[in-house]
User: What shape does this take?
Amino acid sequence: MIAWLNGTLTASPRLDAADRGFTLGDGVFETIRAAGGRPCRLAAHLARLRCGAELLGLPLPDDAALEAALAELLAAAGLADAALRLTVSRGPAPRGLLPPADSHPTVLVTAGPLPPPAPPARLVVATVTRRNEHSPLARIKSLNALDNILARREAAERGADEAVLLNTAGRVAETTIATLFARIDGILVTPPVAEGALPGVARAAVLAGMAVAERPLSLAELRRAEEIVLTNSLGLRRVADLDGVALAGGERLEAALRQVLDAPTA
Amino acid sequence: MIAWLNGTLTASPRLDAADRGFTLGDGVFETIRAAGGRPCRLAAHLARLRCGAELLGLPLPDDAALEAALAELLAAAGLADAALRLTVSRGPAPRGLLPPADSHPTVLVTAGPLPPPAPPARLVVATVTRRNEHSPLARIKSLNALDNILARREAAERGADEAVLLNTAGRVAETTIATLFARIDGILVTPPVAEGALPGVARAAVLAGMAVAERPLSLAELRRAEEIVLTNSLGLRRVADLDGVALAGGERLEAALRQVLDAPTA
Assistant: This one.
């Protein structure tokens, strides 16, 4: 599959092994849906990427350059609908945690097919790890994905598709790849960013488009939810059961969220 | 600088950009001191690497193969005293958090000169982030180093050399690259692994060689320590001041720790 790496289209992108993205996970990324040959909600994705880069002190190309890279790759790959990934790492550097003053970031864009529609998710609550709401990393999309990988592996080992991550206080944060929306006593609820929820692009679109209570969510409350639906930039998926206990519905909430997310955007 | 990558010595090691070490920080590493052409405390380093790999479900070459790789690189680089780095990542994979069933890990060994002796450290307490003692990642040396990078950047911005990381409960865990030993009321103290301290190889050697109280350590206690010394596999360093407040000593504790760490090992 063709990729765009630091300005060049290439069928076999190769990186310097001293890249801090590899040695230290020092970088940020975005997963972006493309539809009809165009990235969806691009401004929101680039704004979030820029927030992450600012936290890390990572210099980024300007938005126009990043937008051109995405467009160039989509055209070269001949894809209209795709899952794009835009990754920016600190680039190669000698040993040591402190980034060099003159870093040369690595910018990589890859694209693949959109994941096929998935059946309702079997969800478990991860026991192996907790999301650290005390770290600003919880609020950016960084290359440090191991807590999420551990939880996703636990889900697979328990015969499930996806895992809920609790924060260090034991309240609900999100799932390994998605924002969690739950209907509880008829009210639609999602955990706030301060609780360890990633400020998702689809999440923001939902919050802007319908009535949602952004508030701390206990696990006990989640367990008695009438409906749970997961959203991320690639799509949405309703939850069939949580730790083996079936949820009644989901179709109604899924339809409502889909309507908001499928609405035309600027 | 020459490197050993997946069985081959190369002057310019290059990686597939789909390597999960790069895309997700999915891997583990060890920093190992070499002296007289031989890696120090190799068995302890390989045991810790194996613990980390087991947590991640990452297949590792056997110890003999890893030892041979380190020896081959040291010989090729013509280095007697060096800082070795052994990195194992999940290897290339398609998009998605769940590791592929048939992963082909990337094994990379690099070497560089030992860091020069450093003056006593100016230490600050990181405010930007907290170490997540609720995650098993706190107990392994993974490629997810961003919390440490954030704290190390904060130290530099505040004119210091190194930062103390607190855990989510606000107690002392370690510094960004070292174990912290403090003498308080005459007793030598270091935080336990359950508090978020990395189970360091030098730390284990100190605990085996002298009387140390392994117990939770509050920041208030640390602030009234008589001496603080930092250790890691590359060496040790005493602390000159903490958040701008000078510490009286350090030489005595540094000498005692050095004696234990310099003792011949099996």
